[in-house]
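New to this. Help decode the following:
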Amino acid sequence: MPKQLPLVAMDACCAPLDREPLTQDQALELSHLFKAMADPVRLRLLSLIASHAGGEACVCDLTEAFDLTGPTISHHLKVLRESGLITGDRRGTWIYYRVHPEVLARLSTVLTTTGETVTA
């Protein structure tokens, strides 16, 4: 089974980029998360899961939203899961996915500006 990327540096990377620069480890960690979201199918899957009633979506609901094969959707969900952006629970024959809101909040925070003006 592929190894999920650890979210080791995420607690330390909550300062907006315009307040302090990222360390090398923080940049590496964040780049994995942004890379997982960089594909349009994965970004749409993430939004479908996050906006679904109850905060979770069955894979059966997700596959019908795309003109893609089941294995292709499964691959994209696997990338999101291994990056730490989503988690899934098997219930009978279906898997239900949820986003990790704390990971999305940290990504949002690092991209938020503090509103301070920087002068050269």
Q: What stands out?
A: The CA atoms of residues 9 and 25 lie 7 Å apart. Helices lie at 24-37, 40-51, 59-63, 70-83, 101-111.
